[in-house]
Write the structure tokens for this entry.
Amino acid sequence: MATIIDGKSLAQKLKEEMKTEIAQMKQRGIFPKLVVILVGNNSASEVYVRNKHKSCLEVGIESEVINLPTETTQMELLELVERLNQDKTVHGILVQLPLPQQIDEKTVLRAILPQKDVDGFHPVNVGLLSIGDEGFAPATPSGIITMFREYGIEISGKNCVIIGRSNIVGKPMAALMLRNNATVTICHSKTDHLADYTRRADIVIVATGRRNTLTADMVKEGVVVIDVGMNRDEQGKLCGDVDFEAVKQKASFITPVPKGVGPMTITELLRNTILAAERQSRQ
Ligand code: NAP
């Protein structure tokens, strides 16, 4: 029977540690600040932004949320980003996705200064991650690496299968696992015989947004399973991409949904904001 990785408690513990760290930074005259821009009134985005704001305040990071109307033009948004790029009191800038259709996401994400891009989506940060240099890695895969570290789960030399190849989860996850010396395979919707890959894996990370992508017959005994998915079941209850009840009988470690990967994502955003403030203070 698996150890259930408790992302919620771990995130709380890390936030407590950050509180102390930030108090010390403030004594050195560094006041980390994150600005989140929310365009329009997508209700899911509003919840995410509220949670980020609350978590910042909890640890002592100054947080400002800028709400812009749905009809905001790309030019108006770019001007705001540029103003924040120039503002020395702002260390991290995050544009909440998705954006309304008149605004090109790529153009906006590329306008954020890489050193303030705490989401790690700017091509410069993507490149730095891929060559193993200092930049910002996206929060969700970074949170998973932190989980492995905190639970003492060995990555080096392990056979890791990642299901999903998105720019925000699958691909950066692969880069981080490779950096930590895993042997990495990325699978996706065109992968033939998915189970042939997952059955050989020591670690399976699932990020498809499809319920029951990973079932018990697809894994070996002792596997470590990380479930990134966020779906709703027939009762409207939050669930992941893994058949949790069955897979946990075979796994050595497994993350639940909710209270698994999700809480760690915000913690890593806070971590990136602290890093951004430290780095900018040295410039
Ligand atoms: P995405 O952009 O939709 O990517 C999904 C990936 O899964 C794609 O690469 C797709 O393959 C692959 N895929 C879909 N169905 C598959 C199948 N049946 N077999 C194998 N591969 C399949 O999604 P995402 O943004 O990476 O997010 C994935 C999930 O994680 C979502 O449920 C999302 O809500 C959740 N998420 C959670 C957090 C968190 O903090 N907990 C953060 C981010 C995302 P193709 O490339 O071939 O289409």
About this structure: The first helix runs from residue 7 to 27. The CA atoms of residues 45 and 96 lie 7 Å apart. The pocket of NAP is lined by residues 140, 163-166, 168-170, 187-191, 194, 207-210, 213, 228-231, 261-262, 265 (CB under 6 Å). The first strand starts at residue 3 and ends at 4.
